[in-house]
Every structure is written in C-alpha cells, then in structure tokens.
Amino acid sequence: MPDPSTEERFREMRDKAHSIFRYTMDQASIGNAFARHVNCERGILRVREDLYDLHSYSGVLVVSLGKAAHTMAEALAGQVGDSLQGIVAASVEPATQLSGFRYFRSGHPTPNEESIQAASAILRALDAQTATSLVIFLLSGGGSSIVEKAIDQEISLPDLVATYSALVHSGAPIADINAIRKHLSAVKGGRLAKAAFPAQQVSLLVSDVPDNTPDALASGPTMPDSTSVEDCHRVVGKYDLLAQFPPSVRELFERHALEETPKSDDPAFQRARWWTVLSNQTAIEQASVAAERAGFFVHVDNSCDDWDYQKAADYMLNKARELRKRCSPVCLISGGEVTVKVTNPGTGGRNQQFALACAEKIAGEPITVLSAGTDGVDGNSPAAGAVVDGSTIERIQQRGLDARQAMEHFNAYPLFRALGAAIETGPTGNNLRDLRILLAY
C-alpha cells in the first residue's frame, strides 16, 4: 500500500492529466475552429482562403456527415444563418434540429439501415445539383459507417457489417481499412464528388486521420483517392482477410472485379476544394499549452501512430523515462492512434487497452498515463479512455480484480469503471483522433 503522501502525489498527477485533457477538448472545439476559419458577411462565405458569393448560386446544399456532423452543421448555420438546406447524418441524435435539414441516425462502428438510407438520400440530392449550384460538404471521422452504400447490389447490409467487423478487428491501420471500404462503396473514395459534379464543391474537414492522408477521413468521399485496387488486394493478403469476408465480398476479390475509384485527373475535382479546419495537431498544440501552464516541460512525439499498442506503450514509457532524466516534471504528448488486434472482444477500446498495458509496465513508478479518444468513445465502451499511474496495479489487486485477464480478453472498461479510472465524457460532437498524455516526475 503506498504511503499517504505517495498516494496523494499520484492523485494530484491524475488530476493534472484530467485537467490537461479537459482544457484541450474545450480549446480544440469545432465552435472555436469555425470562428477562426469560417465566416459569412453580406452573403460572402469565407472558408480559410476561399470566398463564395452565396447569392451567385442557384442553390446551396449542405451535406454533413460523421461523428461531428451535428456540431459542424450548427457551427456553419451560426455563421451563415437559417437559409441553408441539406442532410445531416451522425451516430447520435441531435440535441436540436436545424430548419431545412433532413436528419439520419446512422450506425457506428458498423453501418445500419439508416446509413444506407442516408447515402441514398445524399446521392439523390447531389444528382439534382447543376453547374450553378454550390455543395458544402462537412466531413468528420466515423463517416465511413455513418453514410454507406455498397457498390455492388449483391452486397447486403449484413454482408457490409460482417466486412466492417473483419476490418476493424484485423489490427490493420485505418488507412488500409479505408482503402478497402472505399473500393466497396458507392459513396466513398471521391464518389460523392463525382455524384455532385458539375456543381461547385467545398469540403470542410474536422480530421481524425493523419495529416498526410486527408482522403482517409470518412474514407474520402469528396476527394481524389490515393489508394488503388492493388492496395486492397495487398491489405487483404497481409491481414489474411479473404476467408473472413462474406461470400459476396470475397467473390469480388477472387474475380478481381473491384472498380477503381476516381483519381486526381477526374473532371469531378475540377471545381472542388478541401480545407482542414480542425485536426489532431490542434489537440496536440492545445494540450502542450495546458501542460506548460501547469509547470511541465513539454515534449511531443507522434512516432507511435498506427503502432501496435504494446509496442507503443514500451516506446512512450521509455521516452518519458529518458526525458525525466533531463528535466522534471515532464509531459510527453502523443497524438494519433494505436492498433489492437482483437480476438473475443470484451468491453473496451484501444485507449483503455493501451492504458492497461502501461499500468503493468509502470507499477510503483512516478508516471501517470492518460489515453483517450477526442470523440468521447473508445471502442465498444461508453468511456473515452482511461488514466493510470504507478499505483494502478496495486489498487486493482486490492479490489480483487485481475488486470492480466482484462488485458487478454480486451475487457478493460469494467476494470477501469470499478477503479474510477475510466474517462467518461459522453460523445463530444468532435473527433480529432486520440490523445496520449504521459506525466513523469
């Protein structure tokens, strides 16, 4: 049992980690991002460096999709006013609905019937646009399952769900997962842009993907696809996915019948623009500000993006220990996502799995680790993530719980909930990938 002064120090550091995360989420908000990058005066809409005279178009259609769909649509309406019309598809019900918009509550992390209905409604609306129309796409993470329609009518909704499940549990990085999603979809990989052609198009991105692969966001429905059919076959082979796919999908791969997605030379992109208004980098910058104000020496290291969670835990903890030798107290910040190959899933997610792995490796050490998703949802749990420190394993044992069993069964959430270590924000209406905050003193 840690002595009272040691336990008080652990508690203080956990509180500081929570405080840094809360500040980050407050500052890296969609409202703040739109206030910086989007405004409308006298009918002239500014999106970053572009200007659009809304009065010059025969019509303006807004398509908002993803986990941040409600927040983004509200932020745009707050700038432009109540003259907008469009479609909003998200995974949760809106607190309020905007006049002139049609709403869908779709599935995540796998599509549901409303995902398909949303895709069909969006495709119909885009088909009605002309060269004198403006389409404003508001895109955020989660859109891959929230708006979906198979490219081949032989692929049923249960087949799509089975395919998504196989991909999500494969351990493959999100870019590889989305390469396959794009080529199986009627709306992804630039196909919404193709449906909107010849209208003027602008996409505003709240990004939960690496900055160098913006077309991975929501599987890139409005931009040229940088992945190919060849990439899909490579990913399927690397992760042994073919046998896990349903027959309708497996048959497309076996016949080499996948259709290529639109590339940068497609006419659909001649009048299209894309602007990132918020990303994981914003979250990292705000977390750095909060940590510096709290008295920490700050170091940012995103090297472990898309690494296996155990490898990432070893790397990040060793980095924190090295930094602590040079300066103390230190805050190591890391953005992006780690991967977890799930078998027989319990209740948890990649952030809680990473945190639990760290807890085992820092038992007794003056290190605190917070890992959480900025969307407020980690895997299939109601938590965003968890916070652990050098006292976590001892506190787990005192409660008669089994950290090793929770790790092996991917069932970290019940353990963290019992311990009071789960971070439960509820869905945030934002999605900027994950954030890892390591404090060492």
What does this structure look like?
The relative contact order is 0.13. Helix content is 39%, strand content 19%. A hairpin with a 2-residue loop joins strand 2 and strand 3. It has a 6-stranded parallel sheet with strand order 6-5-4-7-8-9, sandwiched between helices. Helix 12 crosses helix 13. With 441 residues, it is α/β, with parallel strands linked by helices. The longest helix is centred in the N-terminal third of the chain and has 24 residues. The protein is globular and about 70 Å long. It starts with a helix and ends with a strand. It has 2 domains: 184 residues, MOFRL domain (glycerate kinase, domain 1, 3-Layer(aba) Sandwich); 249 residues, Rossmann fold (3-Layer(aba) Sandwich), CATH 3.40.50.10180. It contains 16 helices and 15 strands.
Rg of Cα set: 22 Å
Adjacency order of strands in the biggest sheet: 6-5-4-7-8-9
Second-tier CATH architecture of the largest domain: 3-Layer(aba) Sandwich
* CATH topology-level fold name of the largest domain: Rossmann fold
CATH class of the largest domain: Alpha Beta
What count of helical segments does DSSP give?
Answer: 16
Return residue spans where pLDDT drops below 50 for at least 5 consecutive residues.
none
Total domain count: 2
Structural class: alpha/beta
